[in-house]
Design goal:
Elements (H helix, E strand, L loop, with lengths): L2 E8 L6 H15 L4 E9 L5 E8 L3 H11 L2 E8 L13
Antiparallel strand pairs: 1-3, 1-4, 2-3
């Protein structure tokens, strides 16, 4: 199944991001069971606006966008299909 990185900018403050994340998980469970949320990195930009970079397994970008639209409280800045994963161990120095 394809994997995606979703870059989001939230319209709520940082303290409310966990509330949105819980709603996102429930929405996926109830309406988009084909989506698997792997993990997210949550950051705060220079203006104090919370953002996240979420990794999802999903059959299509359209399903990811439908879930995001229904969730609300954020905008989707970009969606990237993941071509592969690497770690430092993949590049030995010796």
């Amino acid at each position: 199944m394809p994997r995606y990185v979703i870059e989001r900018t939230y319209t709520v403050d940082e303290a409310e991001v966990p509330v949105v994340a819980t709603r996102s998980k429930q929405l996926a469970q109830d309406h988009y069971p084909q989506i698997v949320w792997e993990h997210s990195h949550v950051v705060v930009d220079r203006d104090g606006t919370p953002k996240s970079f979420c990794v999802y397994d999903a059959p299509s970008e359209e399903i990811v966008r439908a879930h995001a639209e229904r969730l609300g409280d954020h905008s989707v800045d970009a969606i990237y299909e993941i071509a592969g994963d690497v770690t430092p161990d993949d590049f030995p120095l010796d």
